[in-house]
Fold:
Amino acid sequence: MIGDYTYSEFFSILAMQGFAGLILFSVFVLMALGLAIIFGQMGVINMAHGEFMILGAYVTYLCSTLVTTYLPAFFPYYFFLAMALAFVASFSLGVLVEWVLIRHLYRRPLDTLLATWGLSLVLQQFYRSVFGAREVGVTLPDWMMGSVSVSETIEVPLNGLFVMALTMIIALGVYFIMYRSSWGKRVRAVVQNRVMAGAVGINTKMVDRMTFGLGCGIAGIAGSAFTMIGSTGPTAGQLYIVDTFLVVVFGGAGSLIGTIASAFTISQAQSTMEFFLSGSMAKVLTLLTVVGILMLRPQGLFSLNIRR
Amino acid sequence: MPAAGFLFSKKEWLYFTILAALLLVVMPLAVDVFRLNLIGKYLTYAFVAIGLVLLWGGGGILSLGQGIFFGLGGYCMAMFLKLEASTPAATKIQSTPGIPDFMDWNQITALPSWWQPFYSLTFTIVAIILVPSFFAFVIGAAMFKRRVGGVYFAIITQAVAAILTILIIGQQGYTGGVNGITDLRTLHGWDIRTDSAKLILYFVNALLLIGVLLLAQSVRISKFGRLLIAMRDREDRVRFSGYDVANFKIFIFCLAAAISAIGGAMFTLQVGFMSPSFVGIVPSIEMVIFAAVGGRLSLFGAIYGALLVNAAKTTFSESFPELWLFAMGGLFIAVVMAFPFGLAGVVKDHVEPFFAKALARFSKPSPEPQPQAAE
Structure:
């Protein structure tokens, strides 16, 4: 007996909290992957990253509404179309933003931070004007509803499983793009030595633009996945941005494995502590620990040894 | 850099006179007490902006957590005022008379020990300066000693601001939660809600601000101020010259924190409450824009920036609430892209040459170009 619970009940609670942590982990990873590409590879702080995510969420919401109205037969599969569209929308906006704003500010990282914050305010108000201030949710197709019973006391929701599977696929995809494709090789070459990369014929400006677009596009997919487990409001992106930055910095900028490892640590710590403490104290303790560790080890958990 | 002259150059003394006249004479005569109180509130943000000019413009360290220190100063003041407002006589309807009302609502039956010292005004005033400075020292020492700077520092200060906000909101029995500490009435028996008190507080605030401005200027023209600029531009060279860069950074971070805290305390006095909505990420980054609009290198600019942005915010959100975020976002982008030196830069590049030319045309033996304030 532990407190008022029997051992099997306690074990079930731990498992359920662990699973809740895994869903949080998936959201963190999806958001952080895009950020890790933009911040880790380019050194650009994109404070509007959350808003790119929300763009993906709103695109999914639009798709869900349109498909239910005009193409009900297609409804069970709309999600895959929505995700593709979310990626395209966020990617295009990302490329546009890079062209208008970011490319002028590569030498002034702190100013990029302020400018993208301004962009995030503009986007938030835009969403509010177009979609209204209330939170919107999408209707899930039937096959995503319900849950799987693992044992008598442990139930696993299907949409959570789907998000996790999606996270894994995208993480693998990013890994292949960054480390196994010739395009990824160019990106890493530009990160390691911009001048030399230019000298051997890589169009560094184009690489920058596409990298930024890719990061934003992944944020769009993250937003799309986000609609499956929560509702979307104009300011929802802002809630996650600091957590996500901490995930990336904690993992060690420039290291994808580090990002995933730190997303796992932070989300599991938070959701496990949430059971024992109040939600806010769990978050405070998690963030404090992360900040504390970062003070001792500023380069993060995993760091690349690059001569800058 | 300032030319010869005590503290300021001749031109800067002119700006200083214009500012002092504006704050101490023109404003009190031109607007009613309600608006004056609002202006007083804007000026409390100018303290933070001055701190940021020293820290960001001078030292190149961008802190996105100045709301932490503004809030800590404000909360210290609010705790004192709240204790004074919660006499056993005034709170006799509570189940535990003599403790702040929000504690009673949260089933707390005794005053926590860390609230006890705030019965003393002297302790409170000392705490307003020392608590934020100590906090800044801990953050600064941990970060700067390990040579963490730039965007990492910005993100971590932002995270600390988020942590503090969550903590304040979560521990509502001890802090008043999301509503903050409200219903503050008297300072040593002096009712701070009357018109005459508001007038006096405005002047106290304006004089303190001018004092802080002079202090900041004296820091800037000192050897330390020059080292700071050297560090901003070529940190390695300063380090190789044998200076301990981290200690200088810690000091300027603590100074900026203390200045912000004074602003926070004056905010509580003039507005009559303090809440976590002045601590978190969004207010902290807005404070940066005050300094950026005024010009990140200009102390005068910081004050005008805080005044202008806040006045615009009030006007916009009263008449076109849906446009305000567009305007604010646009302001961030415009300041960064088009006016990196803010109002002060515009004045220096366009207004000053214009007046110099005009003067040269009208009076042939021009004694001294007469520039105008940044308005």
User: Anything to note?
Assistant: Chain A has one domain: 18-240. The interface with chain B takes residues 43, 45, 101, 104-105, 108-115, 117-126, 128-129, 238, 242, 245-246, 249, 278, 280-281, 283-284, 287-288, 290-291, 294-296, 298 of chain A (CB under 8 Å). Chain A is about 75% helix and 0% strand.
